[in-house]
Amino acid sequence: MKKLSVVGIILIVGSVFLAGQLLAADVNPNGFPSGPHFNLNIIGKKDAFICPPPEFDAYGNQVYGNVIFVPETGTNIRILMESGRKGPKSAPSITTLQVTDWCTGFLAGDSATLRLPKNENGYRVYARVLAKPTDDPTMQINPGLDYVQDEFGTYLIFLGTVGFNSVTTSYGLNMVGRSKGKSTAIDITPIFGWTGDVCYVTDPGNIEYSAKPICGKDTSDPLDGTYDDFVSSPDGTTCPEGYTLITAYCKTYTGWVFNMADYVGYLWDLDNNGTKLLQVRFYPN
Asked: Phi-psi bin for 98: left (phi > 0), alpha (psi -120 to 50), beta?
């Protein structure tokens, strides 16, 4: 039998996107709703795993799949998801999920990266752990933000909470797992929520953003006079020690994390305890 390439394997595990809207009531016995979706598979590997190189089509274009390889056991395993109101900055017009860097956690400081198509209504996200339940594997998802930018690439300040309405399962906070018996998908959409402020340091001339006191700190060494660390003022008049009260221009946003700005880098910091396959599906609203 002909040997399958890495991309061939990725496409078999593959993402699926069909036109139309998802009906919330159509939930299958496996816990996943019926309807159009993108599929992401996070596969746990042993420490000696060698990451496959990129593959290209006959025209020299890189072929993207939807599989990410992570250590079967490890902490601080980073997956960066790129999207926004205008879509991923490097490919705003994509119509399918694309994993652009498919290995993380095997080298210090590395990250896997995927691009998710924009959707003004956001997505509902479900996940389940598959493969043999040896030693009751679990995975904890710690959500965060890496960057928030406007359409000109200006970095914005974000002051709030990502995953504000987190998911608690029988395994713990923001944890999924696998025990003996049937594995059923759960709704992890709240992990993709944001509530808080998005701010400019200078007035953008946009009526959506109004003046607000926040706290800034110059952390550069040597100091360069530019604030690069920000926190909320507890009362609008004072700041924590080492911070200076400044005026920023902010808007408050609550909802799907990628719709808070034109371009958003949303981060998963995973702690994996034996999970061999985490299947994640994104359903457009």
From this structure: beta
Query: In angstroms, rounded to a whole number, what is the distance separating the alpha carbons of residues 250 and 183?
Result: 43
The letter for the amino acid at 197 is D
Stretch (H or E) spanning 101: strand 98-101
Q: Where are the domains of the chain?
A: 6-193+255-284
For residues 188 and 117, what is the distance between their CA atoms, to the nearest angstrom?
A: 18
Amino acid 187: pLDDT: 96
What does the alpha-carbon distance between residue 183 and residue 279 come to, in Å, rounded to a whole number? 11
| Nearest 10 degrees: Cα torsion 22, 24, 25, 28 | 70
Q: Are 169 and 190 in contact (CB under 8 A)?
A: no
Instruction: For residue 162, give the 3-state DSSP assignment.
Output: strand
Task: State whether residue 281 is helix, strand or coil.
Answer: strand
Decide the pairing of beta strands 168-169 and 210-217: unpaired
The count of other CB atoms within 10 Å of the CB of residue 238 is 11
Helix, strand, coil content of the chain in percent (nearest 5): 5, 45, 50
Is-cis flag, bond preceding 36, omega within 30? Answer: no
Rounded Cα gap, residues 151 and 77, in angstroms: 29
The C-alpha atoms of residue 71 and residue 25 are separated, in whole angstroms, by 36
CA 8 to chain centre: 25
Taking the chain (285 residues) in runs of 10, the rounded mean pLDDT of each run is: 38 35 63 94 94 92 95 96 97 96 90 96 96 90 96 96 87 91 92 96 94 95 89 95 96 97 97 97 97
